[in-house]
Amino acid sequence: MIESAILYLFLGAFAGVGAGLFGIGGGLIIVPVLIFTFTAQGMPQAVVTHAALATSLATIVLTSISSVIAHHRRGGVRFEILKPLSVGIALGATSGALVADTLTGRTLQLMLGCFATAMSVYMALDIKPKRATSLPRVPELSGVGVFIGGASSLFGIGGGTLTVPYLTYRGVEMRQAVGTSAACGLPIAFFAASSYIFAGLDAQDMPQYSLGYIYMPAFIFVGTASSQFAKLGAKWAHSLPQKRLKQIFALFLLAIGSRFLLINLLGG
Predict the structure, then answer these.
(1) How far apart are CA 54 and CA 141, in angstroms?
(2) Per residue in 199-237, pLDDT tens?
(3) Alpha carbon distance 192, 215 (integer Å)
(4) Which residues does 222 contact at the CB level (< 8 Å), separation at least 6?
(5) Which of 35, 82, 220, 221 is deepest in the core (most CB within 10 A)?
(6) For the segment 139-189, what is each residue's pLDDT rounded down to a tens digit?
(7) Please, which contacts does 261-265 make with residues 24 or more away whose CB atoms are closer than 8 Å?
């Protein structure tokens, strides 16, 4: 148990630093590594991926609270945008978790592999959407919220990789897009994690100390470390070469995405 706790603390620190450095949610790091870690620890394959997704989202609840407070203090949260987005997010995040419960771990890993690969291309090319001339209206925000919440729930992420580009494209200033996206991470993680708890209550293969699909030891140690080390990553972001760091992280995502695709498509 001590070895596992140390491993989870290290993973949380790594995810927190990565989130702070690259301005993304730690889920893109936490989910793949938890899948490999849970597999190595002998967790049944039937629940490995679901547990990794649920546990990642639960840790995001912790890390997003401090992030939202910090952005709000700096005037970075656009509440008139956040409110309609959150309505759609609640529906999408809840639905996404319930849909994930019906999918096999293999299918979820294939989807995660495709998403990680796509994100690696996005980061490597440093794609920046052009700004629109008008802000989005309430119906559009609610509809987009359903998509962002659903996708985030399926991939175990806080949604920043989807929300920030969308808000920037729709004319929101970058600082406020990042702050509002951070605020969106809280309802995404809360509704998705809650739904994974409900969906996993009858999961027979989850190990001891689990709450639904959330594996509590990993949640506690990863969440604690990631919330603390995200501050260090944010500090380093101002002194290290961002472009080169994003290219390196893009290679990491490409390797992760390719591995999931190869394992599940070719059985290699």
Answers:
(1) 25
(2) 999 998 999 999 999 999 999 999 888 878 877 776 776
(3) 15
(4) 8, 9, 11, 12, 15, 30, 34, 55, 59
(5) 35
(6) 999 999 999 999 999 999 888 888 888 888 888 887 788 788 888 988 999
(7) 261/110, 261/113, 261/114, 261/117, 263/109, 264/106, 264/109, 264/110, 264/113, 265/110
- Residue 52's nearest CA partner among 169, 184, 193 is 193
Which one is predicted more confidently, 221 or 22? Answer: 221
Q: Which amino acid is at 81?
A: I
- B/e letters for 38-74, b = 16+ CB within 10 Å, e = fewer, are beeeebeeebbbbbbbbbbbbbbbbbbeebbeebeee
Query: CA–CA separation, 84 vs 235, rounded Å?
Result: 32
Place of tokens 């999931």: 260
Question: Bridge-partner residues for 214, per DSSP?
Answer: 211
